[in-house]
Amino acid sequence: MASLHTFGRNSPAAETSDNRSDSTNSRILFLVCIGVAGCSDTTNTQQCALSGTAVGATSGAVLGAIGGNAALGAVVGAGASLAVV
Known about the structure:
- The protein has helices at residues 12-38, 44-67, 70-84.
- By secondary structure, it is an all-alpha fold.
- Helix 2 runs antiparallel to helix 3.
- The mean pLDDT is 75.
C-alpha cells in the first residue's frame, strides 16, 4: 500500500516551501543592505530618529505579539518613538 504521508521532506510541497523561504531571506537581506547603504549620509539627528523609531517598532511588535496584533504594536511603537524624538 502506498504511503499517505504527502508532506514529507522530499515532497513537492516541501520543496516549494523551502524555495520560498530562501527567496524571502534573500529579499530581506537585500532590503537591509540597501537600507544600511542609504544611511551613510545622514546627520546625527536623523540617525537618532531612525534608531529610536527602529527600537520603538521592535519593542512595539514584541508587545503587540503578546497582545495579539504585532503589526499594530510595531506601528504604534514606531510612531510613539518618532514623536518623542
